[in-house]
Amino acid sequence: MSQSPTKISYDVVIVGAGAAGIGCGVVLKELGLERFTILDRHQAGASFSRWPEEMHFITPSFPSHGFGLLDLNAVTMKTSPAIAFRREHVTGKQYALYLQTAADHFELPIQTEVDVQKVEPLPQGGFILRTSNGDVSAQFVIWAAGEYQYPHLHPFPGAEHCIHNSQIRSWADLEGDEFIIIGGYESGIDAAANLIALGKKVSVLDRNGAWANPDTDPSISLSPYTLHRLELIYRTGRLDIVGDAVIEEVKRTPDGYEVYSEYHKWMTAHPPILCTGFDTSLKQISPLFDWSKGYAALTENDESTLTPGLFVSGPSVRHGDLIFCFIYKFRQRFSVIANAIAHRLDLDSTPLEAYRQAGLFLDDLSCCSNDCVC
User: Fold this and answer.
1) How far apart are CA 230 and CA 194, in angstroms?
2) Which end of the chain has the least Cβ crowding within 10 Å, N or C?
3) Do the domains 9-149+278-367 and 159-274 sit in the same CATH topology, yes or no?
4) Residue 258 backbone phi and psi in degrees, to 5
5) What is the CATH number of domain 9-149+278-367?
6) Domain extents in the chain
């Protein structure tokens, strides 16, 4: 799994060996495609292994595929993190092991420690990928690099005085009794819950008050799992949550740190914790997409509208109001990409019918809705 690409030509190159890259790779393998590879700058599942030790999946895993229901965090059929680890909410390290095990089981052609530095479309079609191990050519590219490696570190002046949650290896490593968390979405509440479990006092400052958003889509509002955790930690009396707190600046002072919004100031002896999310990895190849709507425009096959042959898989996939940022969402599009590539390479797409029957071939977006009658 660590061979080096040296000016080799492939039909398909997948960039990233995380959940999206492994999932797409398995589908291509089952289509019988032989000339493809997966490139990753670290190891398979590396981003998940870098999560704070205490962080768990908010999406529940459950051993239900024996009854025709695939584990929500599985990236391919007949696999289940719940069964593998006997846990409903697995840790990042456990999920990384799940992905590595899947990659080994399906014998995916992964090349590790390869940094893709540039993707160049060719005038005649296809691509040259400039990598740390030399150039690679491909007829098609599937960008599946994810987001966790691209934390949003500079949302306001003075953010360099803060610690982004992605830089935390364990919340137990932080010294101090009181902390300010900037950002109240999933990672902010997760940070608060873990610090409070360690006996700390925590203030969460959020510009929108994400905990009060009634939207039913967890891509926009807090998940039920996180809302329940929030309720429990609020009862401890050690949590202060502040909505409508648009942070404008953080200043270092002799006594610690000052956090400013337009009308308020908070003081803390310890570096504030940034839970401000992540930038899309597509920014690495941003000229290859149309960003006029604020996100990368894709065709019905999740292909760049500007660059034919360049597909996107993972949390950056979006079609209007439909945001595919969770695994159980974006895995439904693996087969859509594979089907498009299969037709262009004149491959038999019959194996994809099994994915359609398993609910893993979502090519009709008109049926997507979070409406609930009760």
Assistant:
1) 11
2) C
3) yes
4) -115, 130
5) 3.50.50.60
6) 9-149+278-367, 159-274
Residues 33, 338: Cα–Cα separation, whole Å: 10
Angstrom distance (rounded) from CA 253 to CA 105: 54
CATH of domain 159-274: 3.50.50.60
Report pTM: 0.92
Distance between CA atoms of residues 341 and 357, nearest Å? 20
CA-angle at 60, arms to 148 and 91, nearest 5°: 50
Write down the residue that tokens 């504030």 correspond to: 272
Tokens representing residue 128 in the block: 């040259």
| Continuous H helices in the chain | 19-30, 46-49, 81-85, 92-105, 186-197, 224-234, 327-330, 334-344, 352-357
Burial of 173: CB neighbours in 10 Å, binned 0-12, 13-18, 19+: exposed
CA 15/CA 146 separation, integer angstroms: 9
